[in-house]
Amino acid sequence: MTIAIIGAGGKMGMRIISNLQKHPYRLMCSEKSKDGHKRLKQKGLEPVDSVEAVPQVDLVILAVPDRLIKKISEDLVPLMKPHASLLLLDPAAAYIDELALRDDCTFVATHPCHPALFSVQETQEAREDFFGGIAAKQDIVIALIQGTEKNFKRTEKICREIFAPVVNCHRITVEQMAILEPAAAEVVAASAAVLMKQATDEAIRQGVPEAAAKAFMLGHAQIPLAIAFGRVSNPFSDAAQVAIKVGFERVIRKEWREVFNRDFLKKTVYRMLHPEANE
C-alpha cells in the first residue's frame, strides 16, 4: 500500500512517519519547508512534490494545519486516483464544509483521545507520553465523511498504527467529533485548565509560595475529577458542594451549554480556521 503524507516534515507528520515506518508501506512524503526536508532526510526519506505523489497513492494523509485544508484539498483531491482515500487528523474542515470531496473517493476523519487521566501506563516512558502515539496506550475516534466501508476499514487499520498503541477505536460521526473537539475538550475543558492555572497564579500573587500553590492545586484538581467522573465512590463533601454552587454563580456562565448549539459550534470552528475573523 502506498501512502502520501502531506506536511510530512512537521511535528505531526514526523510522528506519523515514525509509526508507519514500522509497517511495510511505501511512503511518499511532501513537505515545503527546508527544515522539514532536513528532518525527512534524517529519516532516510526524500521529499516528493505533492502534485507528483498524490496521483500514485492509495491513501493521502493531510498532516497540515486545519486552516490550510480548504486550499490544499481543492488542489490535491482532483489529483487523487479513483477509489483512493484521504485522511484528516481533525474534523474541523469537514464539519464546516471546507474539505473538497469526490464521489469516487473515500474521506475519513480521525483524532486521538490522548492517554486518559486515570489510565494505567506500564512504563515511565508511557507515563510521560501525554499526547500518545509513542508509548502510552490510548483510544481514538474515527468518522466516515464519505465513501466505502472497505476503504474505511483499511484506513481505520492505518489510524490504529498512526496512534499506536491504541486500545479502542470509537466510530462516531463528524458532528459528534466536533462536539467532542472543539466544544467539550477545548472550549470547555481547555478553558477550565487555563482558568485553574490563572487561579494558581492569583494565589501566588497573594503571597502563597509558588511550590505550595502548584502542589495544592494539582493535587486537588485530581480529586474532583475522580469524583465527578465516578472513579471513586466518595461524593463531594457538603462544604465542597456549597463551594461548587458559588463557582457556578460567580465563575461559570449560566449559558455555558450554548457552546454545543450547532450554529454556535460551526461559528466557533470557523473562527478557529479563520484567524482573521477574530480581528
Give a quick rundown of the structure.
Helices cover 46% and strands 14% of the residues. It has 279 residues and is of the alpha/beta class.
Please explain how this structure is put together.
The chain is of the alpha/beta class and 279 residues long. The chain folds into two domains: 171 residues, Rossmann fold (3-Layer(aba) Sandwich), CATH 3.40.50.720; 100 residues. The protein is 46% helix and 14% strand. The protein has a seven-stranded mixed β-sheet with strand order 2-1-3-4-5-6-7, with helices on one face. Helix 5 links the parallel strand 4 and strand 5. The longest helix is centred in the last third of the chain and has 32 residues. The model has no long low-confidence stretch (mean pLDDT 96).
